Amino acid sequence: MTDGGQTIDARATDSDGNISPVASVNVTVDNGGAPPPTTATTSIVTSIIFDFKGKNLKFTVRVEDNLGNPVAGAGIFGDLYGPGGPDPVSFDAPTKANGEETFIIRAAPTGDYRVDITAIDALPLIWNGITPDNGGTAP
Asked: Quick one: fold of 42-138?
C-alpha cells in the first residue's frame, strides 16, 4: 500500500454461508520511507580531529562510506588555514586501512586553525562535498 489514508472494506462469511454487511475501517499507512542503502555509493568525511603536542599541530581526517565503513586508500585533498595569513597550506594523502590519515605541522604558530576539504578521490564512491565543522587553537 502507498503511504497515506486508506480505507479497507471487509465482509465475513460464516459456516452456514451467511455474509455480513460491509464494514469499513480507515487506516493510515506509513511505510517508513526508503529502505536503508545496501550498496556503498558515497564517500563522507566524518571527522577532522585536531591535537596539539607542544608546538606541533596534528589533525586526523576520517573518511567513511554511506554504510559507515572506513574507506581505505581514499585520496584526501584539502587546505589548512591558520594564523600565518590568508593563504592556506594545501595537503593531500591517501587514507590508511582504518579510513584515516593524520597530518602533522611541526612548530605550528600559536593561533586558530581549520581545515577545508577540497576533494575526496575514492572511485567508484562519489564524495558528498561536505567538510564537517572543525577547528582548533594552538597554544
From this structure: Immunoglobulin-like (2.60.40)
Cα end-to-end distance, the chain, whole Å: 60
Report pLDDT digits (tens) over 7-20. Answer: 888 888 888 888 88
Spans of all domains in the chain:
42-138
C-alpha cell of residue 11: 465482509
Instruction: Region of 57 please: left (phi>0), alpha (psi -120 to 50) or beta.
Output: beta
Report the b/e string of 104-129 with b at 16+ CB within 10 A: ebeebeeeebbbebbebebeebebee
Nearest to 117 by CA among 52, 46, 66, 57: 46
Tell me how far apart the alpha carbons of residues 130 and 7 are, in angstroms, rounded to a whole number.
44
